[in-house]
Amino acid sequence: MQSTIPPTEDDWSIARFSLLHNYLAVLVDEAGEPLCQVVSRDRTSNENGDDPSLSTLDRSQFDELWLFAVDTGNGLSPHHFYDYNWDSEMGCSSFVDVPPGNNLKSKPDAIDDLKAYLRNLVLWLAPAD
Fold it and tell me: Which of 42, 50, 62, 100 lies 20 to 30 Å (CA to CA) from residue 2?
């Protein structure tokens, strides 16, 4: 998991996706073996302005990249995986002006559906054996 911004406390840094990280990290297969190792990081820049992980991804040991395009502009909207949507009591960034919802608390099956979707993503994106 990687964000497209450097570590920033009051922004969409990768720390705002800790519940997703924690869920993916505990996924196991039928034999009880981990489905994945999860690395979460924000963007960093080397002397050329390139992110050292993204710029060498084709030569890395990573099988999957979950890139959260959270920089300003017309990027993607990763808010469904944002901690605040899983648990509004975790708080949100100061720029979030949407009132907290309670769908996941009022509809217990919703979190199970989300987790099933995430597990399926891990499996669908995994390289073929």
Answer: 100
